[in-house]
Amino acid sequence: MILIWLFRTFFSLWLLLTLGVWRSTRRLPKLKASTLESYPPLTVLIPAANEQESIKTTIQRLLACNYPDLKIIAVNDRSTDETGSILNRLAEENNRLEVIHIEKLPDGWMGKVHALNTAWQRVTSPWFLVCDADVSFAPDSLKQAVQHAMAHDLDHLSLVPQLGAKSKPAQWVLDNFSMMGVAGIPFDHRGRVGGPGFGIGAFQLIKSDFFKRCPGFPAIQLEVIDDIALGQMIYRSGGHSGIANGASQVSLTWYANWRTIILGLEKNLFAAATGYRIWPILPIVLAACLFLISPVAVWALGSPIDQGCVFGGMGLHFLGLAIAARHMKVKPRHALASPFALATFLLAFCHSSWVVLCMGGVRWRGTFYPLSQLRKQRDAKRSA
Q1: What residues have CB less than 8 Å from 198, skipping those under 6 apart?
Q2: Pairing of the two strands 135-137 and 250-253
Q3: pLDDT grade, residue 6 (50/70/90)?
């Protein structure tokens, strides 16, 4: 009796998840076509480490945008491939691109955050954009984003991009991640982000004057999840943060296939879910397993009424996600893969926890960061 009630309780969470996804994706603000007569100067900061496959396309797409006063600062962060050479050639062809080459990483910094801090020192424009080196931009994307931020009096704007993959299983996972991830972001009906703050690495537009009054990148110099940490730092500093649906304007191929999702989240998930603590691992895994198997368990152990509830509840779940998919430029039929997507992220969390604990730290961009150092940064942020 206790067991069936336990599974019934966890099965009810499927409906709560559906409601959260449906509600969040519906009220996520959309960008509007640009209508302003003039736009303030904008600088785009792009940290790049071994991005020879994507950096040229990203730079060219940015330069092709119809933004009138645009500058790009690309940082070659200790790349061992052709990234630096590609950037140099592009800079020779277009004077709107400035290239910075970093040969050595100072102690106590994550490579990407240090690259951003280095580029930030050269920003003179009223607004700057932080983005990754594999993002694709529609021609009107920058205008629409700046217009949205100015219209809503924002100091910081994140756009939810369209995520792509090169294999179908990976695309199923990423499409569900796009929908479910929005439900985990604290924002109101206007798109204003609440505590503790949030940021998305693919696109973060920031007002320069406000950022000068913030602790800046040195406050997050050892943050593995630097995009979220940047948004949280801005929120703690009193900034007005917003989020909008940028799926029609910004896109990227996040992971090529299912295996690279597991490996790519290695440095992130353990930190994000546990804050580098060991004790939450078992409760998280147990709760996730109970959640995933609860529909089957209730169907197998319950009464005919329970079986009817499972049939109807899962039908509502898939229908709700299919409706939400239309708001995120996701194929509605991919909602059927939501259990597979959730199981993938559980496996990725287990893999991340195992690898980080076995190594005693995180390896990123060729540098090893021990857990003791990362926990010290975390504790300092909590006490601030």
Answers
A1: 158, 185, 186, 187, 228, 231, 232, 235, 241, 243
A2: antiparallel
A3: confident
Q: Strand runs (DSSP E) across 255-382, as ranges?
A: 361-364, 367-370
271 within 8 A of 224, measured Cβ to Cβ = yes
Sign of the alpha-carbon dihedral angle for 267, 268, 274, 279: negative
How would residue 231 be classed by pLDDT, with cut points 50, 70 and 90? very high
CB 255 within 8 A of CB 263: no
Alpha-carbon torsion 168, 173, 174, 178, what sign?
positive
Helices (H), 241-303: 258-264, 269-274, 281-301
State the Cα–Cα distance between residues 173 and 17, nearest whole angstrom.
16
Q: Is 30 helix (H, G, I), strand (E, B) or coil?
A: strand
Domains and CATH numbers, the chain: 2-24+261-378 (no CATH), 28-256 (3.90.550.10)
Is the bond preceding 196 in cis, omega lying within 30 degrees of 0? yes
Assign 66 a pLDDT band (cuts: 50, 70, 90). Answer: very high
Both tokens of 118, joined, read: 């280095």
Instruction: Look at residue 384 in the predicted model and tell me its pLDDT.
Output: 60
Residue 195 in this model has a pLDDT that exceeds 90? no
Least confident of 89-93, 188-192, 206-210: 188-192
Q: Give the integer Cα–Cα distance in Å for 21 and 271.
A: 24
